[in-house]
From TrEMBL:
It comes from Vreelandella andesensis. One of its GO terms (molecular function) is arginyl-tRNA--protein transferase activity. Residues 112-235 form the N-end rule aminoacyl transferase C-terminal domain. NCBIfam families: PRK01305.1-1 (NF002341), PRK01305.1-3 (NF002342), PRK01305.2-3 (NF002346). It catalyses: N-terminal L-glutamyl-[protein] + L-leucyl-tRNA(Leu) = N-terminal L-leucyl-L-glutamyl-[protein] + tRNA(Leu) + H(+); N-terminal L-aspartyl-[protein] + L-leucyl-tRNA(Leu) = N-terminal L-leucyl-L-aspartyl-[protein] + tRNA(Leu) + H(+). One of its GO terms (cellular component) is cytoplasm. Its EC number is 2.3.2.29. It is found in: Cytoplasm. Residues 21-91 form the N-end aminoacyl transferase N-terminal domain. GO terms for biological process: ubiquitin-dependent protein catabolic process via the N-end rule pathway. PANTHER family: ARGININE-TRNA-PROTEIN TRANSFERASE 1, ARGINYL-TRNA--PROTEIN TRANSFERASE 1. Keywords: Acyltransferase, Cytoplasm, Transferase. It is an enzyme of class 2 (transferase). The lineage of its organism: Bacteria, Pseudomonadati, Pseudomonadota, Gammaproteobacteria, Oceanospirillales. This is Aspartate/glutamate leucyltransferase.
């Protein structure tokens, strides 16, 4: 996004709260979500400002958790200048050097959806996105905006990874990644490798941060984010090193 994009003060925007609903990450907990008025599309400037305050994008909606009595969901980002791949991550780079990589606009592609559907059915059958559908996929991950992209990876021409991300003026925001569940590819750690490629893309674009969404200390599925160091957490309105 251009730094010259028009901005509206956050105080002038309208927000709404959802009714309490079951938390997707912590069993037995209720969650409430704060989201930008749907009439306010996630345009440059507004999106840039809200992302610094911990907002994320899903489809055309910008949101963040706003749960009474709970602040377990914390926004995290990787400062690109300070990142240094560890031994395991360097090994993954070598192991996956044979993948072809392309960045494309966030539009619907049949093979993207087929990979997504297999991923949800086989990896997240107990989650909110099961069962998958084309309409669900389109609403969630496709967007006709100049900042929305998909990073795709192929092995011998076969699609094995898609990582949806947005380009902000101060970083890339990782939206969602899905990949092949073929057991023959497990050693490639494709999800981790996708993050490494987004870090590289930040460097190529001279962008200072990669936003990784939310981190919950008690959530096992989010522990992979701690492997990327250093990492920063949003503490109120300030980003600080995450120490745990």
């Amino acid at each position: 996004m251009s730094s010259n994009a028009p901005r509206r003060p956050v105080r002038d925007l309208r927000f709404f709260l959802t009714v309490p609903h079951a938390c997707s990450y912590l069993p037995g907990k209720e969650a409430t979500t704060l989201f930008l008025d749907p009439q306010e599309s996630p345009v440059p400037g507004v999106y840039d400002s809200l992302s610094l305050l911990g907002f994320r994008r899903s489809g055309r909606h910008l949101y963040r958790p706003h749960c009474e009595g709970c602040d377990a969901c914390r926004s995290v980002r990787i400062p690109i200048d300070g990142f240094s791949a560890n031994r395991t991550q360097r090994k993954l780079r070598r192991l996956n050097a044979d993948l072809s990589i392309r960045v494309v606009p966030a539009r619907y592609e049949a093979d993207h959806y087929a990979l997504y559907a297999d991923y949800i059915r086989l990896r997240h059958a107990d989650g909110d996105m099961y069962p998958p559908s084309r309409e669900q996929y389109r609403t969630f991950l496709t967007l006709e905006e100049p900042y929305a992209y998909l990073l795709e990876m192929r092995l011998d021409g076969k699609l094995v990874v898609v990582a949806a991300f947005d380009q902000l003026e101060h970083g890339l925001s990782a939206i969602y990644t899905f990949f092949s569940v073929d057991k023959a590819l497990e050693k490639r750690s494709l999800g981790t490798y996708a993050i490494l490629k987004l870090i590289e893309l930040c460097g190529e674009k001279s962008l200072p941060h990669l936003y990784l969404g939310y981190w919950i200390e008690e959530c096992r599925k989010m522990r992979y984010k701690r492997a990327f160091t250093p990492i920063e957490v949003l503490d109120g309105r300030h980003w600080r090193p995450l120490i745990c």
